[in-house]
Amino acid sequence: RPLIVWLCFIFISIIVHTQAYHRAPCKKIAVKYQFQFSECYAPNINQDLYLNEASFVMAHDSATGYIHTKNNNNNNNGDSYISDDDVSESSEYIAESWGVNDDGDYYNYNQGSTWNKISTNLLAVYGKTQVGSVYEQLNDGARALDLRPRIYNNGTIGFHHGSLINIPLSTITLGGLLEDAKQWCNDNPKELVILFHHELTHEAGYNALSSEVYTEIDDFYTTDDDGSVTYDDAYDDEEEESKSQSQDQGDDYNDDQQKSGYSYFYSGIAKLKQVYRQHYVPYYPCDVLSGITVGEAMELADLSKLGGKGYLLAVDRHDMYASFCGKANWVENELVTCHSKNDENEREENAPRYQMCTNRKNTGQSKLSKLQEYVLASANNDATDNADELGPPADESYYPFNQIQGFWQVDSESASIGITHAASTLLDDNRRSNVNAEMVALAYDQKFTNINLFSMDNVALNGNAMFSVLRNGCGQSVIKDDDDYFACGKNLVMPHMNVSQRLPLFWNIILIVVYSSLFIMVSVMLIQAFGLRDHGLQDHRVECNGVL
Asked: Taking the CA atoms of the chain, what radius of gyration do you get in angstroms?
């Protein structure tokens, strides 16, 4: 019997290596051990699953990974994608530091008081939830990206994280992010990647989003008279060439010359559609993805139809705010933050004043237990469409996805305590609380009824472990036959998870200051010592000349 089991495992390994995703590079031990199969392999996804049954790791606020980084996105010609191609001939100049005021004049984003610059940078450091580019996040296990677009007055599309943090245009724009995602899909052509928009904002505010424009319907699908959806292939090169020539001549196209006609769209959605067309990435409304299988979604996301490689698509409700397509499970009165203040009237004597998730031996355990209850309720509660109740959606046609928010939430109190008393950032909270490893353990122990979108901060830390556990869940991959039951779920070894020992940013700064001061002091002393030696006789020296 052991021999049969051993031979079966060899057979499964052969299947995995021939029909599988292989993470590259796979040199670091810390990366290898996060995968349940050798050499960073994971079987391909089961395309027969309905899309809301398939499990994906989602990178929460993905664009924040570009904060304090330099944009170096290149296309195949080596040209930089600092901003979207349609903005201006001088798009690089505009996107890096310039906007347009109400009078039509350009102004510099970097202008302002020193305090504004300092506070903005501090907020950006605190609010950063991911490490590295989209390419790196996908390599760290993410297959769904949470994006918050922001449209600027000059037409450039960047990103934001809440009302106070705007990711600088000099680091990333939507066009640059799409090129990063397309490059990863090109390097990993068997994986499906989904981009989720929500909370679209505009620099000019509500009025700029509420207006509608008459523009071309999505080129990637058409709606028939009976309401059914027909999916079109890629752009026809000859049609595009003739269209471009006619535009140069100032000619107008008739509706019957368009593949899918025209309709009214919110101006923000029209702008997003324009950028997606330029970068040849499919962009759909939510209802197109409702009730379809993973295989059908991959048909919609097939970049080979558009001259690329791999599977990538973007989706939102196509409403004014480009709303999220799934049930978010964000219930305000049940949110679990990393830091909170104990009620002074209920606090026991000698009890700590604050509860901190980073204090893993004390109050952190209580915090973690509450977060575990929150995420389990998001998947295991009775189905409901009530936004104020946790649980999967009841109307799966309106909510094609269900999100589980497996990270610490933030409010003003938590941020204040975290900065002033714990000297930490959101990334520090994530590392020091070891929350990602705890979420992986929950998934491995099969505590969830179903996992669809599992949203995480800092996928660079154990994101591949979560990806491996989700992909190797029974029925989730191509290894789905009954005879292969031992090659999925808890029958596979639990991934080895990394524990970050990095100090919080505040203490790193203190150490840098201390060591720099010591280095300067020692350097000054050595310079003075060598200077005294080279200056010849000194009055205070005793000279021995051999005379008694």
From this structure: 28
